[in-house]
Write a structure and sequence with these properties.
Blueprint: H1 3-15, H2 22-58, E1 65-66, E2 72-77, E3 88-97, E4 102-105, E5 113-116, H3 122-128, E6 136-141, E7 162-172, H4 174-177
Antiparallel strand pairs: 1-2, 2-6, 3-4, 3-5, 3-7, 6-7
């Protein structure tokens, strides 16, 4: 970014002057919006192709199953000890793009999220219900269950599928946690 041009633009805006006539400015904005829309559509198409290739290989792996919610998953470790709907569950999540780019990794940040099972978003509730205490699951989520067509710029492109690896760090009965 050209800082001088940026500051000149701010100064012009404050002082109410413009280097472009209103019709030129309008045309430039339309052209800019068109370019952004084309780039966004290109990114969505690229993500769709990436997901298609990835899922073709992923679905052949042993243990990969489809969930009725619309994602596919593989249990890495089932864990031990049943989880009840009112239990307080601590999870650690790694979120990645299908090309391997890590979006966020709670383990690396030494963080976890602790909530009653019923308070997690439906997608995470569903994944957690496939596990027991200390279990781990990897699941591939289509864009409509993740960030949608808009993505989450700049980390998640438009139309990206997401790979989550979710590990249950701990489970406590609701009554123990309320004390």
């Amino acid at each position: 970014m050209d800082i001088k041009a940026y500051l000149a633009g701010i100064t012009d805006a404050i002082e109410g002057r413009s280097l472009l006539a209103p019709t030129e400015l309008h045309a430039a904005l339309i052209a800019s919006n068109s370019t952004v829309a084309k780039n966004r559509n290109t990114q969505k198409e690229e993500q769709a192709q990436l997901a298609k290739k990835f899922l073709a290989n992923w679905s052949k792996q042993k243990g990969v199953t489809s969930d009725p919610l619309g994602y596919s998953y593989k249990i890495n470790y089932a864990g031990q000890g049943k989880i009840q709907s009112k239990d307080i569950i601590s999870i650690v999540v790694k979120e990645s793009l299908l090309d391997g780019t890590v979006v966020s990794d709670m383990d690396l940040q030494d963080k976890s999220l602790t909530l009653p099972l019923d308070n997690y978003p439906p997608l995470f509730q569903s994944a957690i219900k496939h596990l027991q205490n200390h279990g781990e699951i990897t699941f591939i989520v289509p864009p409509e269950l993740a960030y949608g067509d808009d993505g989450y710029p700049p980390a998640v492109p438009p139309g990206a599928s997401i790979m989550y690896t979710l590990r249950i760090a701990d489970v406590k009965p609701a009554s123990t946690h309320q004390r």
